[in-house]
């Protein structure tokens, strides 16, 4: 396909140089901003690889957040950052995109950590957010980690995974915080190997993240090195902010249409927790879309269904609400 818009740029976001990537088949389309997970786990290579057909109808925008991927620089380790920093950055990016593409509002699609930013952003600036799409929806940090950890512990026992059990049995999170980095990374590695992160491709944590990066043209080897540094640093730096979140207490209504796309087997951000929040959420339009063959990332585990369902939901929304 020939794209009218297909390039990237760096802009200054609240004093920090950050990377944006655009793709659209025509000018004047509604804009959708993808908020990647992590913190620091950029996914433009996956979004553009799996969903470029969306560019026929929407201007797709992928953003490497502060300290992430192409936006990484050493100064991040000297900065005082928090979730609020990323919400403020996202707010700046929305205002920039609105001006650049001549729209009043932008559709926001968040994945995992991106839903922490996206939900807080949607609650703060409903005037800028045309619709909110969540995937791997984050709701309550402490409860999230309790359920996720218990899944891994039960699976390790069932499988007789003695190496993992040795760490897991002494590494339970307390209020969402693991006793040390080894405990946390073991739990996350088990999550990927046991199907709670990707239901069908049960690879270890490093392989599942690294191999797609090495195969894409979106990131150079230098970018991959920056990506690794950013993801490693940001996870530790921002973890306490993540697990302190309680959207089930603080975000009970949103002023725009809400679509949640959730894998049935998600134990990274457990679907049972996300569903309870969704059912109690007040919004002018709500739609829950389940994915029976997915865990944490249905956009990449069941890409055709995810794209079809999201586009159909946006068509429904567009009949009643402005998307640009």
Automatic annotation (TrEMBL):
Q: Which InterPro entries match?
A: AB_hydrolase (IPR050471), AB_hydrolase_1 (IPR000073), AB_hydrolase_fold (IPR029058), Peptidase_S33 (IPR002410)
Quick check: keyword Hydrolase in the entry? yes
List GO molecular-function terms, semicolon-separated: aminopeptidase activity
Q: In this protein, which residues make up the domain named AB hydrolase-1?
A: 30-183
| Residues in coiled coil | none
Keywords assigned by UniProt, alphabetized: Hydrolase
Can the keyword Cell wall biogenesis/degradation be found in this entry's annotation? Answer: no
Q: Which GO terms describe its biological process?
A: proteolysis
The cross-references to Pfam families, in alphabetical order and at most eight, read: Abhydrolase_1
- Taxonomic superkingdom: Bacteria
Which family, according to the similarity comment?
Belongs to the peptidase S33 family.
- The protein, known as: Alpha/beta hydrolase
Its source organism is: Candidatus Limadaptatus stercoripullorum
